[in-house]
Specification:
Helicase-associated domain-containing protein, 215 residues, globular, mainly alpha, 59% helix, Helicase_assoc, 9 helices
Length: 215
C-alpha cells in the first residue's frame, strides 16, 4: 500500500509537470524535482514492469515511452514549421541564428549513417533535400532503400506476392517491411516516388493497392 501511495504521489507530480511544461519528458537533470526525473526513467525501464492500470494512467496524460523518439519528433515538427515559413524550403543553414539547434539537427540527419528508414521516409515526405553537397548521405539513403527492396524481393520469392501486411517486419534484419510498403504506395499516389524506384518495384510486379497478405 505504501508503494502504491508513493507511485500515486509521483504520478501527481508528473501531471503537475505536464501542466507546467506541456510535456511528460522530464529532463535527467531537472533540478526542481530530481526525484521525478529518476521516477520517469524507471517507468520506461523494462526491468521494472508496471501494471496495465498504471500504463493506462500514464497513457492518459500522453506519457512518452521513448524520450529519444519524442526529441526527434519535436525537431521534425520544427523543420516543418521552418518549411512553412520559408516558401517550402527544408534547406536550414547549419548556423541558423533563429534556431541553432535545428540547423545542427538538419545537418546531422544528412550525415548520419544510423538514421532509420522510417525517419528517412518521413523527411522525404516533406521534400527534405539530400543535396549533392551531401553525396555520401544520399548514397546511404539509396543504400537503405535498396536494402529494404531486396527484402521485398526475398519476401515475394517466399510468398509469391508483394501484398505485405503493414505489421510485418523482418526478424533477421529488423526491417519494418510492412510499413515501408505502405510508404511506397503513398509516395506513388502523391507522385513523389522517384522514377528509378517505381521502375524497380514494377519490375517485380509490385501491387500498388494494399491488401492483407501472408504473415
Amino acid at each position: 500500500k505504501k508503494q502504491n501511495n508513493q507511485w500515486d504521489e509521483m504520478f501527481r507530480r508528473l501531471v503537475s509537470y505536464r501542466k507546467l511544461h506541456n510535456s511528460t519528458v522530464v529532463p535527467r537533470d531537472y533540478t526542481a524535482d530530481p526525484e521525478l526525473g529518476n521516477w520517469v526513467r524507471t517507468q520506461r525501464c523494462k526491468q521494472y514492469p508496471i501494471s496495465d492500470h498504471r500504463v493506462n494512467l500514464l497513457n492518459s496524460i500522453g506519457f512518452v515511452w521513448n524520450a529519444l523518439d519524442n526529441q526527434w519528433d519535436d525537431m521534425f515538427q520544427r523543420l516543418v514549421a521552418y518549411k512553412n515559413q520559408h516558401n517550402g524550403s527544408t534547406l536550414v543553414p547549419k548556423k541558423y541564428k533563429a534556431d541553432t539547434q535545428l540547423g545542427r539537427w538538419v545537418s546531422w540527419q544528412r550525415h548520419s549513417k544510423m538514421i532509420s528508414i522510417h525517419r528517412i521516409e518521413r523527411l522525404e515526405s516533406i521534400g527534405f533535400v539530400w543535396t549533392a553537397r551531401y553525396e555520401n548521405c544520399a548514397r546511404v539513403f539509396d543504400g537503405k532503400w535498396m536494402e529494404t527492396y531486396d527484402r521485398l524481393v526475398a519476401y515475394k520469392k517466399q510468398y509469391k506476392s508483394t501484398h505485405v501486411p503493414q505489421t510485418y517486419s523482418d526478424e533477421n534484419t529488423d526491417i519494418h517491411l510492412g510499413s515501408w510498403i505502405k510508404t511506397q504506395r503513398i509516395a506513388y499516389k502523391q507522385g513523389k516516388l522517384l522514377e528509378k524506384r517505381k521502375d524497380l518495384l514494377n519490375s517485380i510486379d509490385f501491387s500498388w493497392e494494399g491488401k492483407r497478405g501472408p504473415r
